[in-house]
Amino acid sequence: MDLTSSNLEAVFKGYKTAFQQGFSSVGAEEDIAGMIATTVPSTTAVEVYPWLKSMADLREWIGDRVIHSLEAAEFAIKNRKFELTHGVSRDRIEDDTYGVYAPVFQEQGRSAKVHPNKLIVELIESNPLCYDGQNLFDTDHPVLDADGKETSVSNDMGGAGPAWYVMDLSRFIKPFIFQKRRDYDFRSITNLNDSNVFMTDNFIFGVDARANAGAGLWQLAVRSKQELNAENYEAARQRLQGLLGDYGRPLGLAHTHTMVPSTLEGDALQVVNTSALAGGGTNKWFNTSKIVLNRRLAAA
Question: By CB neighbour count within 10 A (0-12 exposed, 13-18 middle, 19+ buried), where does 254 fall?
Fold first, then answer.
């Protein structure tokens, strides 16, 4: 192939098509971040989330309106930069053998699509501080009781095994936040006069983005490291659905999804997807939540 600008542009378009094919190949079940995290567009290096403390419901309008402040919390998420880059030999393109690299760029596209889930799992397993100053999964989340006195609420069931999570994903705000400053963008350096091409005899193709993950509403997820069986499933489910907001207000949460690592897939299927019990009788927890198999979660 003659290394003209138009031919090199055609190579770039071919690799970009491969990248998009890989990006689009990720189905809804693998797009876990899209399921469990609120995607928020970012316009600055650091985004502040003053609205996280607000989980208010409609009330009967008697007297003046009750104004719920959206400035009560100053939780912030700082964007980070990410990249994945490959070099393709000038000789490969010149000899018309550059097509062998197409699967590399398909995989690059797939990696970009599932990258948000990688960030979410890193977040979950680091158990960072959330908007109320406590760890995301903690036994001491401060909530006002019916008398206006601060009390502690737990969304952590304890245990010492691999972690699994019961979540309410029915709301517009999710347990986690995926913050996107600059979307995943496939770019190239194919100019023969570029210093890198001149020195290495390689053309460069890669994807980059600016983004990060952060804690959303801790009330929407309960963690358990206990054995995943019917008894502990029921306890975690009741904990989630029984959580109260300030002044003893029921939050009306629903247990919609159960997220597990690969090692707990069989246990989750036994508890949630099996209609009959081994010893006879009906499984009362059959189909009571959707299993989210997250293979990036720690298996032990």
Answer: middle
Contact 47, 40 (CB under 8 A): yes
Structure tokens at 14: 């071919």
Q: Report if pTM > 0.70.
A: yes
Question: What's the DSSP call for residue 162?
Answer: -
| For helices 102-126 and 5-24, angle between their N-to-C axes, nearest 10 degrees | 50
Closest CA to 107 of 206, 187, 241: 206
pLDDT in tens, 141-183: 999 898 889 999 999 999 999 999 999 999 989 999 999 999 9
Express each pLDDT in 244-273 by its tens digit.
988 888 999 999 999 999 999 999 999 999
What residues contact residue 280 under an 8 Å CB cut-off, 6+ apart? none
Decide: 135 and 127 in contact? Cβ < 8 Å: yes
142 φ/ψ angles, rounded to the nearest 5 degrees: -80, 130
At residue 265, what are phi and psi to the nearest 5 degrees?
Answer: -60, -45
